[in-house]
Design a protein that fits this description.
single chain, 198 residues, Rossmann fold, 5-stranded parallel beta sheet, two-stranded antiparallel ribbon, globular
């Protein structure tokens, strides 16, 4: 039976780094955010519907993520309308991923808003990636186009880290070195009876 593992954590916690470590160990990855970016890129299947609902948020045949973000962030109705467009498409992509990897020992799903969308029941194990608040803030504020207000707006939409940690099957602390994080990934793979890639 395939073990379905959800990987989640708040912004700036190091999910992408941890996901890459699982991929290096041979675990196929479904990255929900990457799928959304693909579907919102030039000629993507969601561009037309997003422009129709949020006029002026696309440019050159692709969604302008900054414009769209500015439009929906902090507006519950607009955010809900965007989710109605995006979520079914992501679910279809997830189903295709499951079909493509039928029979794999394990699959990893990178889902930033796992708890916020009540999706954890669909997975066998939940891994929460975490780091100290000062490390998280420094990482996020170093991103292009990010500022304290935007960071605060994103954090307001996310389940607090301590609550995520309390609901996790495994916690990976990315506040230390990459070697320490890698050791935690290998320990989880070993615990689940999966190849560690070493």
């Amino acid at each position: 039976m395939t073990i379905k593992i959800a990987l989640t954590g708040s912004i700036g916690m190091g999910k992408s780094t941890v996901a890459a470590m699982f991929v290096a160990a041979g675990i196929p990855l479904f990255d929900a955010d990457a799928e959304v970016r693909r579907m919102q890129s030039d000629g993507g299947p969601l561009v037309e519907a997003i422009e129709a609902r949020f006029p002026g948020t696309t440019q050159g045949g692709a969604v302008d993520r900054d414009r769209l973000g500015a439009r929906v962030l902090g507006n519950r109705d607009d955010l809900a309308a965007l989710e109605v467009i995006v979520h079914p498409a992501v679910q279809a992509a997830r189903a295709a991923f499951l079909d493509a990897h039928h029979g794999a020992p394990a699959l990893l799903f990178d889902i930033p808003l796992l708890f916020e969308t009540g999706g954890e029941a669909a997975y066998d194990k939940v891994i929460v990636v975490s780091a100290p608040p000062d490390v998280q803030q420094a990482r996020v504020l170093a991103r292009p186009g990010m500022n304290r207000d935007k960071f605060a707006g994103i954090m307001a939409r996310q389940t607090p880290d301590e609550q995520k940690r309390a609901r996790a099957d495994f916690i990976i602390d990315t506040g230390g070195s990459l070697d320490q994080t890698s050791a935690e990934v290998i320990a989880i793979l070993a615990c689940l009876g999966l190849p560690t890639g070493r």
